[in-house]
Design a protein that fits this description.
Two copies of one chain form a homodimer.
Chain A lengths: L1 H29 L2 E7 L5 H12 L8 E7 L4 H7 L5 E5 L12 H7 L10 E5 L16 E7 L6 H4 L1 H6 L2 E5 L11 H11 L4 E4 L8 H12 L1
Parallel strand pairs in A: 1-4, 1-5, 2-3, 2-4, 5-6, 6-7
Helix pairs in contact in A: 1-4, 2-8
């Protein structure tokens, strides 16, 4: 059974890579850059986006940014972001299965017709909250960014190395809580460097706004 | 492609159910009760176990409790628990694939020979940190328990309903942080009741010990 399963997985990843390339071609044709934003559930992706898009003036004279929201069920996050008047489309991963734990290239592809790609500088894809499978499925993005909350503990890079290696930028979020946690930031960064030496990291608090300037600068550069 | 994929998924779940029944028969023969403990990454499962097993005197005259640790990679959690002198075995989900995001019945089965089931009252299976797929794979357990951290936000039951429905007990952890968060506990519990009306919930802080008495009582009853 195991060999069959590995073959099925390889076939799935091959098919995914093909569709990811098609997405990528569409993104390039439209002149839109794409960020795949990943994290564990509750690390603060949506709040970070809310605060950053408002700060950047997206939908209000700033860079033209759209969002593709991936969730197993519901439209809670899309509803939160829609109030910013940026184009938002929701993809739910539950049809046909108990719920996929990640976005794949085909799910992203199915949502593209609902987005005005030609009129966007940047598309942010908010992936399903999960530190394993999202790292294995490219969706045609230019950049992979992850959010790690300090409430999750210092050991997470060692326990989910593929995710921490897959990203070019790690946003260390909720740093406003550091005084109330037993979290050792130096040890987290040491563990991060063990699995992805020198990866860019930004310390942020979506709640207080600390560090959001640097993250918004990064988004501005990514938007081209 | 979609229909093929659904069939493959159904085959995988069928095979899983068969092996889960075999595990269950082995657990019953050995007279050991089994708890499948699930959560998002960093919700505090391992710290909860460390504190609860010490408090229960497991490995020191209390109920005889063993632990099966599921992680994509590494033995960090198993190493932490081994210091309590309880039987601990580690299952890594990464061989043969980039890393499975959940334990399945076969992975659990592969680890059983390493555990002294006949000399245990209770086996706690700490699943991979993930709010999606672990809920879909029974492993032969008697009870499914999840840990939800208050740092993850009030919306999680609505976003990951299968997980919150699959469990008979929800441990709401890290309540010592409530004064420092914008987390609305009443709204979380309202959302929890929306997807799993009346499910037992215990408010706990692994860090301060608050609420651990009730959770340890639950474990004592589960151990029989």
């Amino acid at each position: 059974m195991h060999r069959t399963r590995v073959r099925v997985v390889e076939d799935v990843l091959d098919a995914n890579a093909t569709i990811a390339r098609a997405n990528r071609a569409d993104f390039e044709r439209a002149g839109v850059r794409v960020v795949n934003l990943m994290s564990a559930p509750g690390a603060g992706k949506t709040t970070l986006l809310e605060r950053s898009l408002a700060r950047l003036g997206a939908g209000n004279g700033g860079p033209r940014i759209g969002v593709l929201e991936g969730d197993v069920q519901g439209t809670l996050d899309a509803d939160r972001l829609a109030s910013l008047h940026v184009p938002v489309v929701q993809v739910n991963t539950d049809p046909g299965f108990g719920g996929e734990c990640h976005l794949d290239a085909n799910m992203v592809r199915s949502a593209l017709p609902a987005l005005p790609l030609d009129r966007l500088d940047l598309l942010v894809i908010e992936n399903v909250g999960n530190l394993v499978c999202p790292a294995e499925f490219r969706v045609g993005e230019d950049h992979r960014v992850m959010v790690a909350s300090v409430t999750e503990g210092e050991d997470k890079p060692l326990k989910y190395p593929l995710m921490f290696r897959a990203c070019e930028l790690v946003l260390v979020n909720k740093i406003d809580l550091l005084p109330h946690l037993d979290f050792d930031l130096d040890r987290f960064l040491y563990n991060l460097d063990a699995v992805h030496p020198g990866v860019t990291r930004l310390l942020v608090s979506a709640r207080t706004g600390e560090g959001l300037g640097a993250w918004c600068d990064w988004l501005r550069v990514a938007a081209g």
